[in-house]
Amino acid sequence: MPRDNRLSRSLHVLIHLDRHVKRATSETIAKMLDTNPVVVRRMMSGLREKGYVVSEKGHGGGWELRAALSDISLLDVYQAIGSPALFSIGPAAESSPCLVEHAVDARLDEALNEAEAMLLKRFSQITVADISDDYLAKMKKLGLPSDTFPDCSE
């Protein structure tokens, strides 16, 4: 099962919009993420609905950051992209008359619900600015200026 990478991609774009480009077209972002502009527009629409970004159509248009990264948590972004399933494991999708399966599913549900609650709580404690700071620390460690634009399309 392929991983859902919308969260990491959305965070990636938010940091670029804050640090490197004040406005970027869906085509530019798509090239950076090695995907299709339609996928970018779909991914970014939830961020726009929450007010974290705005988009302008036409010549000179594109996506622009509207909120400070310190005001956006991982939980905010996760919810903006539609709160996709966090785990690919879990109970069977179809109900079974087997009591063993009922016992297994009940314990799996309980454990996964606890894990999800803990993960979402942690997401609420991490801001996009925290991740941007991690990126800047890596740049500094490599001796690169913080305004260097990394080529993410390679």
UniProtKB/TrEMBL annotation:
Gene3D superfamilies: Winged helix-like DNA-binding domain superfamily/Winged helix DNA-binding domain. Coiled coil: none annotated. InterPro entries: Tscrpt_reg_Rrf2, WH-like_DNA-bd_sf, WH_DNA-bd_sf. GO terms for molecular function: 2 iron, 2 sulfur cluster binding; DNA-binding transcription factor activity. This is Transcriptional regulator, BadM/Rrf2 family. SUPFAM superfamilies: Winged helix' DNA-binding domain. GO terms for cellular component: cytosol. Keywords: 2Fe-2S, Iron, Iron-sulfur, Metal-binding, Repressor, Transcription, Transcription regulation.
